[in-house]
């Protein structure tokens, strides 16, 4: 299947409150992150059988991503984006994932700041 043939399952605007930031004061409180995910998944079997077991269950992905993000304090939204991508690829067998992590409160003069990444099975952050 080529990239243009892929189906996608989306989770958009997922709100997660967690300890995130490089400054000391940011390690003393939670801040809100917004997560957007697009996950490549062939939806035909699920659609034909109308069967959740064949589907990529976005509720289960949401639960796992939220638990991972809140597991411990982190400094960079880059770390959060990479961790979510690897979780989705490895735990759910997704072949390709796009992750955007927004930290809308971080820069008062900006509407939003974010990082976005695209990862596939067998991509590694360590090369
Ligand atoms: N590329 C990044 N730049 C910055 C980050 C980050 O996570 N990635 N974080 C900060 C601070 O934590 C900031 O959010 C505090 O307002 C600064 N730059």
TrEMBL record:
Enzyme Commission no: 4.1.2.25
Q: Which UniProt keywords apply?
A: Folate biosynthesis, Isomerase, Lyase
- Is Plastid tagged as a keyword? no
Q: Which CDD domains match?
A: DHNA_DHNTPE (cd00534)
Q: Which residues form a coiled coil?
A: none
SUPFAM superfamilies from the UniProt entry: Tetrahydrobiopterin biosynthesis enzymes-like (SSF55620)
State the Gene Ontology BP annotations.
folic acid biosynthetic process; tetrahydrofolate biosynthetic process
Q: Name one GO cellular component term.
A: cytoplasm
**Could you tell me which pathway this protein works in?**
Cofactor biosynthesis; tetrahydrofolate biosynthesis; 2-amino-4-hydroxy-6-hydroxymethyl-7,8-dihydropteridine diphosphate from 7,8-dihydroneopterin triphosphate: step 3/4
| InterPro entries named in the record | Dihydroneopterin_aldolase, FolB_dom, GTP-CH-I_C/QueF
> Could you tell me the superkingdom of the organism this chain comes from?
Bacteria
Pfam family membership, one: FolB
Query: Does this UniProt record's set of keywords contain Isomerase?
Result: yes
* Catalysed reactions, semicolon-separated: 7,8-dihydroneopterin = 6-hydroxymethyl-7,8-dihydropterin + glycolaldehyde; 7,8-dihydroneopterin = 7,8-dihydromonapterin
Q: Where is the Dihydroneopterin aldolase/epimerase domain?
A: 9-119
SMART domains membership: FolB (SM00905)
Top enzyme category: lyase
Q: Which GO terms describe its molecular function?
A: dihydroneopterin aldolase activity; isomerase activity
Under PANTHER family, the record lists: DIHYDRONEOPTERIN ALDOLASE 1-RELATED
Q: Which family does it belong to?
A: Belongs to the DHNA family.
Q: What does this gene product do?
A: Catalyzes the conversion of 7,8-dihydroneopterin to 6-hydroxymethyl-7,8-dihydropterin.
- Name the chain's protein: 7,8-dihydroneopterin aldolase
Give the lineage. Answer: Bacteria, Pseudomonadati, Pseudomonadota, Gammaproteobacteria, Alteromonadales
């Amino acid at each position: 299947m080529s990239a243009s043939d892929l189906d996608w399952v989306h989770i958009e605007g997922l709100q997660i409150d967690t300890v995130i930031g490089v400054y000391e004061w940011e390690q003393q409180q939670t801040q809100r992150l917004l997560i957007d995910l697009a996950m490549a998944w062939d939806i035909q079997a699920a659609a034909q059988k109308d069967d959740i077991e064949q589907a990529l269950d976005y509720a289960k992905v949401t639960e796992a991503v939220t638990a991972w993000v809140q597991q411990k304090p982190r400094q960079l939204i880059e770390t959060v984006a990479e961790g979510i991508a690897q979780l989705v690829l490895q735990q759910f067998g997704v072949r390709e994932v796009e992750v955007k992590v927004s930290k809308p409160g971080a820069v008062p003069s900006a509407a939003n700041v974010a990082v976005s990444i695209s990862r596939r099975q067998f991509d590694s952050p360590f090369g």
